[in-house]
Specification:
Blueprint lengths: L20 H8 L10 H4 L1 H10 L6 E5 L8 E7 L2 E7 L5 E5 L14 E3 L3 E2 L6 E2 L5 E3 L18 E5 L2 E5 L8 H12 L7 E11 L3 H8 L30 H20 L7 E2 L8 E6 L30 E6 L3 E5 L4 E10 L2 E11 L10 H26 L15 H18 L4
Antiparallel strand pairs: 1-10, 2-3, 2-5, 3-4, 6-7, 7-8, 9-10, 11-17, 12-13, 13-14, 14-15, 15-16, 16-17
Length: 432
């Protein structure tokens, strides 16, 4: 029988004081190792809880620092009802503010990306500098205190070129631990010294959790991702061990050990770190070899950009993968970095933003072409869009019930769902 919808307060800003008994019941009866019940993917009320308690309280990945390369460069990011302005100030530091004028609430910057000298409200021309301080406001009287009307800041962390924000008053403190462990892995790729070669936005008609679950496994890769699997070792997808694949698995494990030893000797950390369901700011990383030429996630598996990100002694550095809860994944190679940000738009509508970065001195048409750089992931993203949209249709059926995850190929899906359920429980426990 179909699961009955639950009733929650639809406004995330008024979540406190809401009756959450039905949501608590759904969370408590979640069966480990199985997909979530239908309301988690369909309910507008649970979507609002996700925005308030997951995206409103955790560190979320929203951009790369090369999107704002010069002083005055800015981008805007919408997270639910909140518009966030990210700008590089005159001291070349990246700042984040609520994109809201302190006068009467007008949105300050409408465009997704641009450049400015000061931040000027289009309504009444209140003017802020790039640190968010109010520097000009006509007709407000001699007693008006500009110092108490600066832009409201948003917590921002620049992790080796990846920009994370947190909308909570008190963000999770364990991001410092994440950053300390990840910097040695990411720093050699010098993302802060890159430029954006391409960015593509894709809207998926599905719930954001289906997008994330799909990313966390490659059970579906064979038969669905012909472009991506050119560069991936088949036995890296996850297999149920057995006599028929013992030799292949052993060979792949040997390639991983040999590659890790070679890369570690170059000063490139490669070993797996796994905290996806054991930290509030859950993450995972590992550098894995790529198949064939082993250089990059391209159709030829050779580098897409002739100018490498750093003075690497070898082009074949495999792919350093970095996953974060709740909304991102990234692949660092010798020649480029590709990052993915997942932002919920509605219960059945999700933005997937993909950004490709190359060395800032690389010349398009000489060192790389955008088509070659983006071909694999443009194709893969569109294939994944189709898969998750079909899943969204399926979970809405009265025949849907939570199905079991493969312990061999879907372990990271279970970790995502376990993290999500745990964090939603923690958030619900703070509501009256």
């Amino acid at each position: 029988m179909p699961t009955q919808p639950i009733t929650l307060q639809p406004n995330p800003n008024a979540a406190a004081g809401t009756s959450t008994a039905a949501l608590r019941e759904l969370l408590e009866r979640r069966r480990a190792g199985y997909s979530l019940e239908a309301p988690f993917y369909l309910s507008d009320e649970i979507f609002q809880a996700d925005m308030a308690l997951i995206f409103g309280r955790h560190w979320i990945f929203v951009a790369v620092a090369p999107q704002v390369p010069e002083a005055g460069d800015y981008i805007t990011v919408d997270v639910g009802h909140d518009s966030i302005l990210i700008v590089r100030d005159d001291d070349m530091q990246v700042q984040a503010f609520h994109n809201v004028c302190r006068h009467r609430g007008s949105r300050l910057c409408e465009a997704h990306q641009g450049s400015l000298g000061n931040i000027v409200c289009p309504y009444h021309q209140w003017t802020y500098d790039l640190t968010g301080q109010l520097i000009h406001a006509d007709h407000m009287g001699e007693s008006f205190d500009r110092r108490s009307h600066g832009l409201k800041p948003v917590h921002l962390r620049n992790l080796e070129g990846l920009l994370f924000i947190c909308l909570a008053d008190e963000p999770p403190q364990d991001f410092d631990q994440l950053a300390e462990r990840m910097r040695p892995y990411m720093a050699p790729h010098r993302l802060n010294e890159c430029k954006v070669a391409a960015q593509v936005d894709l809207i998926e008609q599905s719930n954001w959790k289906l997008t994330m679950e799909n990313n966390r496994e490659c059970y579906h890769c064979v038969g669905n991702h012909p472009e991506l699997t050119i560069s991936l070792f088949e036995h890296g997808f996850g297999y149920q061990p057995g006599p028929q694949n013992a030799e292949g698995l052993a060979r792949f494990e040997g390639i991983v050990r040999e590659s890790h030893a070679r890369w570690e000797a170059m000063g490139l950390p490669s070993a797996e770190i796994e905290t996806l369901d054991s930290m509030v700011s859950g993450f995972r990383t590992q550098r894995l070899p790529l198949d064939r030429a082993g250089q990059s996630q391209t159709m030829s598996t050779e580098v897409a950009c002739k100018k490498l990100l750093a003075d690497f002694p070898d082009k074949a550095l495999g792919g350093l993968s970095f996953w974060t809860q709740p909304n991102s994944w990234h692949h660092f190679m010798s020649d480029h970095v590709v990052s993915f940000s997942v932002i919920p738009v509605g219960p059945g509508r999700t933005l997937v933003r993909t950004t490709w970065c190359v060395h800032r001195d690389a010349v398009e048409g000489v060192d790389y072409t955008v088509e070659n750089l983006t071909r694999v992931w443009n194709a893969t993203n569109d294939q994944d869009r189709r898969l998750v949209e079909e899943s969204q249709i399926g979970v809405a059926s009265r025949a849907y019930e939570p199905g079991p995850y493969s312990p061999y190929t879907e372990g990271l899906v279970e970790k995502f769902c376990a993290w999500y359920v745990d964090r939603l429980r923690a958030g619900v426990s703070t509501l009256r």
